[in-house]
Design goal:
Layout (H helix, E strand, L loop, with lengths): L1 H12 L3 H30 L3 E10 L5 E12 L3 E3 L5 H6 L3 H21 L7 E5 L1 H4 L4 H11 L7 E6 L8 H13 L2 E7 L5 H7 L4 E4 L1 H6 L4 H17 L2 E4 L5 H10 L3 E2 L10 H10 L2
Parallel strand pairs: 2-4, 4-5, 5-6, 6-7, 7-8, 8-9
Antiparallel strand pairs: 1-2, 1-9, 2-3
The protein binds ligand C2E and calcium ion (3 copies).
The site of ligand C2E has 23 residues, from strand 2, strand 4 and strand 6.
Protein name: Diguanylate cyclase (GGDEF)-like protein
Organism: Methylohalomonas lacus
Amino acid sequence: VREAELALFYCRRRGLGDNWAAYNHTLDSESQDRLRLTRELRLALDNDEFELHFQPKVSLANGAIIGCEALLRWHHPERGLQPPASFIPVAEKSQLIRPIGRWVLNEACRYLSVWRDAGLGIVNVSLNVSMVQFTESNFSRTVAEALAAHDVPPQSLTLEITESVFDQESEQLREEIIRLHELGVNLSLDDFGTGYSSLRYLQQYPFDEIKIDQSFTRKLLDDAYSECIVNAILDIAKALGAEAVAEGVENEQMRSGLMALGCRNGQGYYYSVPLEVEDFRWLLDKRR
Ligand code: C2E
Ligand code: CA
Ligand code: CA
Ligand code: CA
């Protein structure tokens, strides 16, 4: 409201009555879009419109699959397949990310048990956890229950956390992270290097894995600075006993560049885009 008032004041003073109308209209249609999306997301859970895609995480040395990342997709009844960026922010604002996140968690555990029972030997599934999920009371218990429901060992699950999780650092968040660690699930710091205080979080929380953001992988071959940064990240990971995983490995040059620096694991289009479950299963089956 304050913003709108200021805009109105500004437009009046400059004699820009029409612009104000346009501005006001944009605000309206934006919040209407958000409301509509929120309604649709609520229905999407009931109508089973979500789906997980899986991107292999591989050993850069030989391409062996060492795990996978579950990435959320939404089959919108009219607009078709929707990427997470188009709806996760709205899901977070409306808190719907909590039930959606629980669905992701259960689905990931379900596939882990299905693949294990089929003898496909997948060892690990990573999933992305939103900051909003940490503010739900007893998130660690939700995770423990999902694991137990599908009889999946905690070491099979990796929770990827971005730095924005720590924007609202609190004692509760701290306790939840420690409880998850004690539970035995792996904790991964996603998009490492893109935030302001990455090093402090590494120092304060028990991360098992660091994901080197795609922006560094992409620039690795172009400039010496990026090479230095990736090198430093690898050193830090090593010192902390955390596994480093490079995101966005798109070609052979990136693969060998990363290998030369001592990075052992990666993900990216060079190996595979995120796959529908049938295709990912085929990939697992093929390597047996
Ligand atoms: P992220 O966790 O950093 O996931 C990696 C993103 O990079 C994915 O986009 C993936 O498809 C894409 N990617 C993988 N390999 C390459 C590559 O070689 N080159 C390029 N250019 N991109 C690559 P996607 O699936 O659109 O997901 C975007 C973001 O949405 C994710 O970023 C994650 O932050 C969020 N997200 C996805 N699924 C979930 C979920 O279940 N819950 C929550 N809270 N967030 C999710
Ligand atoms: Ca991720
Ligand atoms: Ca990432
Ligand atoms: Ca990212």
